[in-house]
Amino acid sequence: MQYRSLGRTGVQVGTLALGAMNFGKIGRTTREEVTAIVNAALEAGINLIDTADVYSGGESEEMVGKAIAGRRDDIVLATKATMPMGDERNRQGSSRRWLVTALEGSLRRLGVDHVDLYQIHRWDPNTSDEETLSALTDLQRVGKIRYFGSSTFPAYRIVQAQWAAREHHLSRYVAEQPSYSILQRGIEAHVLPVTERYGLGVLAWSPLASGWLSGAIREGSEITTSRSTFMPQRFDTAIPSNRARLDAVEQLAEVADEAGLTMIQLALGFVTAHPGVTSALIGPRTLDHLHSQLAAADITLSADVLDAIDAIVAPGTDLAAHEKNDTPPALLDPSLRRR
User: Which phi and psi angles does 47 have, rounded to 5°?
Assistant: First the structure.
């Protein structure tokens, strides 16, 4: 395992990090399986585990907490808040009221007294940067969080938050967690230049593009990934963007074969090759999935391989731009762009 500094914090984390979204009912992963996955990941050198309160309604945090009991100090523990946790309207967002409550719930489920990285899961357009940063700074000062970051923020919101922290003399976000893969390269055009400019760590989620780059999806084969059961529209090859992804996968498979790599090694090696990326978040459901992804831990792609990837999916290109989670609200809600 290679290690890099998480932004300018000085905290060293592996280039592969363990994402816990599939732990619990989402991935149908049992507590025993989670413990085995965590044990194997730590043994392989992974030292950052990332979860969120919303993952399986808190079940993921509970499972992670049980799995790391007794070795908390060896782990960089990250979780997230802001996504809805119930039907009550104020049990979501990034207000001080909710973040304080949400963090207490996460600490209880994880069985710890602090988390190392607390992340705003999605930008909340209803809450000011000053409100959110002030609450996070206070939580940091009382020792319940060590650092805080953002997740899936558009570039201009990352910049605005940095300016707001400076203006109000508050602590700042030290990391961003964007979606990034060979098939979704849009952050290269906007987000990564900003995170590099401000010295933010980058934890890239979905580096296998929801399974498209796992090697299991090929022309003529039935698509049976776990995501295809509850997000079938993302894998319907009658949809032009999905057809484009499948065409790219076929070409990428040839590149991988010629380089003597698996598709997973190609995909993860591509993400960690970018100098602005700290870690690729892998989200295994089984031990076999974990081991196949750990095989990419020390992969360094040659310039020829990276050039071949660029020829298939151009830098800064999203093959499924409509699936991005950082679209400004006014583009999604007509009432916000009408007088």
Answer: -130, 5
Residue ranges for the chain with pLDDT beneath 50: none
* Among candidate residues 130, 123, 125, the one with its CA nearest the CA of residue 96: 130
Show which residues are catalytic: 55
Q: Which segments of 20-71 does DSSP mark as H helices, in order?
A: 31-43, 59-68
Residue keyed to tokens 């994402």: 19
* Strand pairing report for 115-120 and 76-81: parallel
Q: Which of 60, 56, 58 is nearest to 20 (CA)?
A: 60
Q: Which residues pair with 318 in a beta bridge?
A: 184
**Tokens (6 digits) for 88:** 């009550």
* pLDDT (tens digit per residue) in 58-99: 999 999 999 999 999 999 999 999 999 999 999 999 999 999
Closest CA to 205 of 43, 98, 48, 32: 48
Q: What is the tens place of the pLDDT at every residue in 228-260?
A: 555 677 778 888 889 999 999 999 999 999 999
Q: Which of 156, 217, 151, 153 is nearest to 183 (CA)?
A: 217
